[in-house]
Amino acid sequence: MAGKKLKAWGEAGPSLSGTLWKLGVLGTVDAIAVTMIMVLVSQELLTQAVLSIFVLLIVNWIYLRKGGLPAKYLTPGVLFLIVFQVYVLMFSGYTAFTNYGSAHNGDKGLAIQTINNAAYRIVDGPDYTINLVKDDSDGSRAFLMTNNIDGQVSIGKDKELPVILEEGKYTLSTECADKYAEDTVNCAKAALNADGYTTQDVAALSEVEKSRYLAIRVLTDPENPNVGIRTSEFTIALPSEATLAFDEKTDTFTALVDDEYGNFFAGDVFKPAVDGFYRIDGVLENAKLDGGWRVEVGLANFETIFTDVQLREPLVKVISWTFMFAILTVLTTFILGLFIALVFNHDKLRGKKFYRVIMILPYAFPGFLSAYVWVGLLNRENGFINTVIFGQEPGSEANFPWLLEEGPARLAVLLVNLWLGFPYMFLITTGALQSIPSELNEAAEIDGASGWQNFRLIKLPLLLISIAPLLIASFAFNFNNFTIIYLLTKGGPSDSGLTDYDVGGTDILITFVYKIAFSGTGQNFGLASAFSILIFFVVATISLISFRRTKKFEEIV
From the CB of residue 23, how many other CB atoms can be counted at a distance below 10 Å? Predict the structure, then answer.
């Protein structure tokens, strides 16, 4: 009996090769995950590191335990769903209620560090060639500095005066050692290491470690703590003067000198403001320091969309064109696709398969490649459309301005999208027409119905029952058809005379949102996310209403 049980278990258990494969794959995943966790810890992203460890432990538990086969199949899909769908949606939704943008792209600590690093200006004095080192006794960071004027070598620590090293306490480069006796002034990178210190390889340092070395300021004048030596390149250090002083206890910056542009004066105190900037006395109307942080702003981004005067005019223009573009694209592609489907669906037509293959070629080519080809075809001076089809003079600036003026550019976008979109409509209408029973057509002919009456009263209603959902989906797709607009015109031609917002004549909502988020110098991810949420609700509402309306077609049957 025991032998039978053992045999049964052996038959049901995993094979040796399967177990080895599982352990090998799981070990590889663990190795990659551990490496990522170490990177997160080195960058002091402890919350993300702890979460990663927790997920890694759950994954190992799922695959190392006996049973739980459904969980083993579902785990990869669930993880990818969370990372690429759930997290993206949650982050985008959260971003819409923040001021996240190019001026607010980190937390408050990063903003303080950014302000501190920029709060210096170069002053007269010798420059130094440096190596980055750590004190072997306490691990503190320091500069091993070579004065490029007198050749002196010294150790400099944060907010301390440098200590000049005696000869023999440091090692010179071979090249420099040969020159040192005769030429100390031009002995660049003289000191490579010093007794009691370990040289740090810049390339091997994490971003956190680099930022700590960038924050070091070695004092040079005991009577003026505002003047010191700093580096921004890790090789050369220059004397600089501090323009701001940060007080951790009061969480304020104090101006030490007058701003050269007159924005603030010595003695002004900058306090955190509700907009994520340090402003004089924390008042929104006062001057601010460059470098902000993310803060939650509630419905401020949505309020901007509906109340900003600068945004109102271009937004109305963009919204109206977005609807026009989506509706006209669906109508034109549907009409052309249906017309060709009716022609090629005729019983007496020969070579249908050949013609149908030719008709779907534009659909088979990559859309981005077709768009770039059309950019060349529509070129004003030398494009095929102007010089061959219209017979205009090659190289002339008087030719039809495809892509250069708002009206022609919109027409060009619709024509190119018609070229790319009609094969899809041709395919779905061909399938729908072939699904209509031939008995209905024969009955209509017997009753004396004309071809137009047969199409209008029988074929079209039955056709719409099948393809109405696809037409709605096509509208939703073209409502957010970023690819064709961006590749063909990049939203242009630009209309710089409207407002400060970057808006063009062919911009639809999605390309306008893209410009808000990624173009120019004032990227505003929070406002772009708020726009994205509104676009979702607009498309969802239109789709919901349209799907409900399509039920009326079913009453015809």
Answer: 13
485-536 residue pLDDT tens: 999 998 888 765 556 778 889 999 999 999 988 876 578 899 999 999 999 8
Residue with tokens 């440096």: 130
How far from 287 is each of 119, 132, 261, 263, CA to CA, in Å? 15, 37, 11, 6
Are 374 and 419 within 8 A, CB to CB?
yes
Preceding omega of 493 cis (within 30 degrees of 0): yes
The two structure tokens encoding residue 158: 């944060």
Q: Which two tokens stand for residue 15?
A: 């094979």
Residue 119 burial by Cβ neighbours in a 10 Å radius (0-12, 13-18, 19+): buried
Name the pTM for this structure.
0.75
What are the angstrom distances between the C-alpha of 476 and each of 25, 98, 430, 467, 528? Answer: 41, 27, 22, 14, 19
Note the Cα 32 to chain centre separation in Å.
24
C-alpha span between 351 and 263 (Å, rounded): 77
Q: What are the φ/ψ torsions at residue 257 (nearest 5 degrees)?
A: -140, 165
- Amino acid identity of residue 115, one-letter, is I
Percent helix, strand, coil in the chain, to 5, is 55, 15, 35
Phi then psi dihedrals of residue 149, to 5 deg: -105, -50
